[in-house]
Amino acid sequence: MKPVFKTTGLAALLLAASTLTSVAETTVTTWNNEKGIFAVDGYLAAAGSVGKVGGGDRTYSLFDSQNQSFDAVKLGIKGQYEFFEGYLSAMYIPELTSGHSTRNGTYSWNGGSRAPTDSEAGIVEAFVKINVPGTGLSLTVGKYITPLGYEAFHTIDNALITGGYDGYGLYDSHIPAVHTGVRLDFVNKYVEAGAGIVDSTTAGYGFWEGDGDIGNGVGVEAYVKYVGTQRLKLFAGLAYDYRNNNTKVRDTLCLDFWGSYDISKSVSIGGEFVFGDDKGVKGEFEVDGTQKNPRPTYSWILFAKFTTPGHLFLKEDNLSIAARISGIHTQKTYAEDSNVPCDVNVFKFSLAPTYTFNKYLSFRVEGSVFSGEIKNKYAHTTHDLNGWFIGAQALLKF
Fold first, then answer.
1. What are the pLDDT digits (tens) for 110-152?
2. Mapping DSSP to helix (H, G, I), strand (E, B) and coil, where does residue 284 land?
3. Contact between 93 and 74 (Cβ < 8 Å)
4. In CA terms, which of 10, 19, 289, 316 is 20 to 30 Å from 387?
């Protein structure tokens, strides 16, 4: 299979890069003795990659991955006055086509931010926040990114190109992405905590949306994070999506636990465990005629990062190397296996050095290998999921 690259995504990214470079020189304006603030932030990510899964053909991308972890432009505007805040952000993903808006990807080997829309751009966040003075309490209303997940939603905030749970084209980790709702948060020097009600914790229709409908059930999120020391961070979170009996959409549950620890200024480690559960869809049955049982998913990450302490020809913090091992055990149905439940087990190892030129510009490469299989317990067949990925990415941040 010969690689075919599209140039429209590259042209759009170059145009956005020139725009963001000029915007990055904008000074943040503060009014009324720091009572008010107006700020602009964003980033540009552009990547090229090649990879292969199982017995399939090699897949290539060059500025046209249709994946926000690889190629994306994000622009955000923040306004604040006294106790009130507002934030609006938009994202452009070149060559985006229809699919499902999952956080870690379900339908493409390199993950996927595919949304059921032909639009390549849209609003990701649009919320207002009210801070209650002297209490640590705040109320957020609107469209926002979930607080769950060890790895960040925006690729600029991660140490690797791919996510720990993407790259297989077979599943997601049940961690939500973006939805609309209301959330109450509490923050002090030891703890960050919050709980909220949203339209759904699963992907909906549109550009990074929940399902946009509370009539068919709602989603609930809650989290608590320990931040009492500079080195140690601990997190526990829950997301539950309830569907009423009039729909055939399953309830979903996500339990997310992660922690990170800075061993020294140069070395940090972290890990995550996620339990996800899809309750059986009403009216669906196993091939032996029994009602489908809940299908739990177990996924995990082990992470380590080394940053150069500043020696030889390298300046301090200019070069970092991130290593990650991740895995998943789940159950899925596939057309080629007569839509019967199949056991899926996958393990992934990733290594990614990043060189930071300055506070605006960085460049990273990643190599990943993964090993896994799909087992059909009825037909006694096994499908190979072994594969690999190589990618390079330039990042411009402001």
1. 333 334 455 678 889 999 999 999 999 999 999 999 999 999 9
2. coil
3. no
4. 10
